[in-house]
Every structure is written in structure tokens, then in C-alpha cells.
Amino acid sequence: MKIDSITLEVFKHRFASVAEEMGVTLCRTAFSPNIKERRDFSCAVFNDRGELIAQASHIPVHLGSMAMSVQSAIDGPRLCEGDMVMLNDPFRGGTHLPDITVVAPVYAGAQHPRFYVANRAHHADIGGVSPGSMPLSTSLYEEGLIIPPVRIIRDHEPDAALLELILNNVRTPEERKGDLASQWMANRTGIRRLEAMLERFGHETCRDVAKALMDYSETLVSRMIATLPHGTYTFTDHLDDDGHGTEDIAITLDLTIEDERLVFDFSRSDDQTRGNVNAVKAITASAVLYVVNALLEGKAPMNDGVNRRVFVKTRAGSVLDATFPAAVAAGNVETSQRLVDVALGALAQAVEEKIPAASQGTMNNVTMGGYDPVKNRHFTYYETIGGGMGASPSADGSDARHSHMTNTLNTPIEALEFSYPLKVTRYALREGSGGRGEYCGGEGIIREIEALVETTVSILGERRRRPPYGLCGGAPGACGVNTVLTRKGQRSWPGKFQGTLLPGERLRIETPGGGGFGKGT
Predict the structure, then answer these.
(1) For the chain, how are helix, strand and coil distributed in percent, rounded to 5?
(2) pTM of this prediction?
(3) Which of 252, 337, 418, 517 is least crowded, fewest Cβ atoms below 10 Å from its Cβ?
(4) Residue partners of 473: CB distance under 8 A and separation at least 6
């Protein structure tokens, strides 16, 4: 069928609105503050081959990798109408184990699925050796329960035995049960909306417009590439360490811009490490997709068409394409951020006038857990803390923001203190942390939390040794700092650490500032 530009624009928003409404359902029905308050989840719509059609404005590190999880679900046993598959295995398209993906087919009365809907949510605990499932691990087995693609919903009903198995391997089973039910309901919302679209417009129209949207995105990417100076640009940045003694882990990109395609070659990056900063290939691809979308300035619908002109090369066994059973908990949250820094650093050599300085380059992951005697149950609290954004060629960087591969909210103090035996004693801008320049980097955050009961703490952070870089003469942002305050004084903790807070002791996180741009006057 012939598809005009108005039809294309209308359906672009129709498909995206399905994913957005799925997110509203998930947010409003979730049990945990991490999903309900921080909105640590993502939703998307896929065609019958598992290609991305539309996504909500959720979390880049989830969305860019979710298609691989959907493909793993499709490759498994045939999904019937009313079925859903769940998985979290990073080596089958997942990110890290707390991120559980739920996939459902949309039949709408047909013999074969017309579409698929999927959502991914970060669960505050999925087992493993420490509360919150974000330990200083050396193996995937230490990080929690590994879930391959399994049918959790069969003919509209949960598999009771499988659900019991999962809940018996986590510290907060009631919360997990509630969050999983929210994910199921989010998919059902998506199914209903797509069924209504199919009934109103017909399968052929919906299919053809979805294909046209992908073709349109491919065209816009091709046009964008044509505006870039061709050549090969190389950039290297480093992860601070892996938490187990390996420091200055190099991530190297050889970016080739050529006729109608971008080749991101990370093959020369360092080998995978003993610690958990390893990323699976899905994470690497996700970071690249985010950077390409930033270059497009939001002009193209985010779908599989963007990938047709973008090629990602990695080396199996490297820190960006780790092999099973490598530890990967921080690869999703920390290495993904450094991947963006490296990709932007390479692009700055080609189009300096479009690229900002480095943002904070970390998610500052804090996981706290223990036993709450007042509520007579175990608790797990997970938070990522924002920081300074890098200055651009035309503006200062924003203060106290999540950037690049995550855009979650903070946990409001009231919700945190209501839910956990914890107390927020300070929450402020970290003044002076942004890099100076013609345009200054954004300021980081100071967040200080007091333990009211004995609490296990795991920290996974970066940019504690190597600061976020400035561009064109701009100064780097300040490195982050982790401090524990006790009655006897205070002591510094490294970027990746696991320890115990006694009642009355406080953890202070000072997050990095963004890099500056241009020489200041």
C-alpha cells in the first residue's frame, strides 16, 4: 500500500503510545520503590520477527538491548495466545540479572503472532551473595538466579511451580511477586491496544506502516551519515578498575564513517576481567544505538531501521563481549556509560561542534540490605545517583542529572524512609564539581544515608580515579568520592566496595561533575 507522510507520523505516535501506556501500567501497579518511584523499567513493541517497531521514552540501556531478549524468547518453544516468557540471562539478550524481561505475543485471532510486546524492569533483589544482587562478584553465579527463557504465563495464568521456585530464591518474595504481576499487566495493556489497532486498521496496514517506519528511520540515518566527514577516528578511555585489583581497563573504539554506514569497532578493547565490569554484546550494541540516536537529535523514530546502517564489532572474550559465566553486574550500569564516553570522544574528532564533554560517566550504584525488625522482614534498597552532565559547545551542562544510558528518577526521601530502616541525612548539590570552561560542566550530587539497623552495603561506581574529560580546552569534572562516617571519624571507600554499616553509621556518596567545554576566560 502507498503510505503518505501523515499516515506515517500518525502511526509513529500510535505505536509509541502503546509502549508508553504499558509503562504507565507498570509504574502505577508496581510494589517496589525502585520501579514505582524511580521508574527503573522500559517497554517496547516488536514485529513478528522480533524487530523493534517503537519504544517508550524509558531507559536507553534497556531498550537498545531488549530486542535480543525478544529474539531469545521467539527462538524457544512456540508461544501460544495467552502465554508470556520471562528471562534475565545476560548471555541471551539480557543486561544483568536484576533486569527481568517479560515477552508476550499478540495474536489478535490469527494463526501466528502479529506483534510482540515486552518490558524490562530492575528488581531490587534476585538472589545472589549480597542483598540487592549487585555484589563485587567474580562469576555470574554469585549475582543471583539465572533465568533462561521460560514460560511464566501459560494460557493467561502464572505457572505456580515456576513462580514458587523464583520467589524461594530471593530475599523479598512479596515485593518480587508484586513487581512481576505488574510486568504481566503491562504486557496485557500492550496486547489490548495492539488488538484494537489491528481491528480498526487491519493487519496489512499495521504491518506495512511498521515496515515503512523502519525504512524511514534507515533513510534518516543514511542522510545523517552523509553529513559526517568520512574517515576512521580512534578514541580510548578507561574504566577505573574491576573491584578485584585490575585497574585502568581500556575501552578502545575505531570508528569508521563511510558511505551510508557507521562501523563501531571495539575489538582492541581489553580482555574481560575477573570483576563484574564485563559487558555482554547486547550492552555494547545498546550504547552505540543510543549515541546514533543522539546524533539524529530525535528526528528519527527509534526502531530496527536505525540498526541497518550501524555495525558493531567486538571481540569475544573482551570486556565488551564477555563469555559465560563472566560477572556482569556492573557492565550494564557502569561500562555502558564508558562506552558512550568513548563513542562521543571519537565523534568529537569528526564533528567537534556537535559533541558535548563527558558527563559523570557512572550510575553510582548503591545497594543496601538487611533485616528490618520493626516490619519483621528482609529489605533491599537500590539506587542510582545522578551527577553532572558535560558542557556542550553552546551551553553549560545540567546539574544533578542522570545522563546517557539511564534516565531514572531518584527515590524520594519520604518513600525511602517509609520503606526501609534508613534515613537520608543530606541531599545537596556538590558545588564546584563541574569542570570549568567557556561552558561549565554540571554539578554532581551529595547524598548521605544513615543506617538504622545493621546493613550490608554494595557500591558499584566509576570515575573515582579518572575524571570525566573536558573538550576543546575545557577542564575535567571532579572525580566521585565514597565516604563512611562513624562515631570514630570517617574513612574513604573505593569506587567498588562491599561492607557493613552499623546502626548510626552513614554512607556519603559525592558524585562526579561533568566536563567543561572550551577555554574559559
Answers:
(1) 30, 25, 40
(2) 0.96
(3) 418
(4) 437, 438, 518, 519
At residue 489, what are phi and psi to the nearest 5 degrees? 135, -155
Extract the residue ranges of the chain whose pLDDT is less than 70: 1, 521
- Residue for grid cell 512481576: 180
Instruction: Indicate whether 231 belongs to any domain.
Output: no
- pLDDT tens per residue across span 403-414: 999 989 899 999
From 175, 198, 216, the end of a domain falls on: 216
Query: Are 328 and 322 within 8 A, CB to CB?
Result: yes
Please name the residues in contact with 84: beta carbons below 8 A apart, sequence gap of 6 or more: 102, 103, 104, 151, 152, 153, 184, 187
The predicted structure's pLDDT at residue 521:
66
Instruction: Please state the domain count of the chain.
Output: 2
The number of residues in the chain equals 521
Give the burial class of 354: count Cβ atoms within 10 A of its Cβ; 0-12 exposed, 13-18 middle, 19 or more buried.
middle
Residues 449 and 218: their CA atoms lie apart, in Å, by: 47
Specify the residue for cell string 564508558.
338
pLDDT given at position 62: 80
Query: Does residue 408 belong to any structural domain of this protein?
Result: yes
The helices-and-strands tally (H runs, E runs) of the chain is 10, 20
Distances in whole angstroms, Cα of residue 356 to Cα of each of 153, 225, 232, 344, 517 = 45, 19, 20, 8, 7
SS3 for 80-127, per residue?
Answer: CCCCEEEECCHHHCCCCCCEEEEEEEECCCCCCCCEEEEEEEECCCCC
| C-alpha triplet 234, 237, 243: angle, nearest 5° | 150
Contact 506, 456 (CB under 8 A): no
